[in-house]
């Protein structure tokens, strides 16, 4: 595969697995204090990451609350789960096409 050494890694707050940032799902606490799923991965505020495993989603509420230093309501969690499940099933990163520049990274 392509060399992706520079990709920043993030840790799932529920299970602790490390993955490249783009493979994780971000939940953000906006400066206003509201917590929501961050589809863009760039929303302003304090972020926490989830890997999307069902087991992690199941116990994410307390972990997110801890990571974001705020309360996370069940309503917010329901939305986060829904969104993660939707994104997980979709081909997010479209690996099909050669993205160019991979010539020397062969393994
Ligand atoms: Zn996880």
Rg over alpha carbons:
15 Å
Order of helices and strands: EEEEEHHH
How many E strands? 5
**CATH class call:** Alpha Beta
The average pLDDT score comes to 85
Q: Fill in the CATH topology.
A: Hypothetical Cytosolic Protein, Chain: A
Q: What name goes with the CATH superfamily?
A: YlxR-like
- Beta content: 15-25%
Give the cofactors and ligands. zinc ion
Helix content: 25-40%
Low-confidence stretches: 94-105
Shape: globular
Structural class: alpha+beta
Short structural description:
Helices cover 28% and strands 19% of the residues.
What does the model show?
This protein is of the alpha+beta class. 28% of the residues lie in helices and 19% in strands. It has three helices and five strands. The strands form two sheets. It has a three-stranded antiparallel beta sheet with strand order 4-3-5, covered by helices on one side. The model is unreliable at 94-105 (pLDDT under 50). The structure holds zinc ion (ZN).
Which features would summarize this protein structure in a list?
single chain, 107 residues, alpha+beta, Hypothetical Cytosolic Protein, Chain: A, three-stranded antiparallel β-sheet, two-stranded antiparallel sheet, 3 helices, globular, disordered C terminus, binds zinc ion
Q: What does the secondary structure layout of this molecule look like, with pairings?
A:
Elements: E1 9-11, E2 18-20, E3 25-29, E4 35-38, E5 46-50, H1 54-58, H2 60-68, H3 74-89
Antiparallel strand pairs: 1-2, 3-4, 3-5
Bound molecules: zinc ion.
Zinc ion binds at residues 12, 14-15, 17, 50-51, 53, 56.
């Amino acid at each position: 595969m392509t060399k992706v050494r520079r990709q920043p890694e993030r840790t799932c707050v529920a299970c602790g697995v490390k993955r490249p940032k783009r493979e994780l799902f971000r939940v953000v606490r906006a400066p206003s204090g509201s917590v929501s799923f961050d589809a863009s991965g760039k929303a302003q505020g304090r972020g926490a990451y989830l890997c999307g495993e069902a087991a992690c989603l199941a116990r994410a509420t307390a972990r997110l609350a801890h990571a974001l230093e705020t309360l996370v309501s069940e309503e917010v969690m329901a939305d986060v789960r829904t969104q993660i499940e939707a994104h997980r099933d979709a081909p997010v990163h479209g690996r099909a096409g050669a993205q160019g520049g991979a010539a020397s990274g062969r393994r």
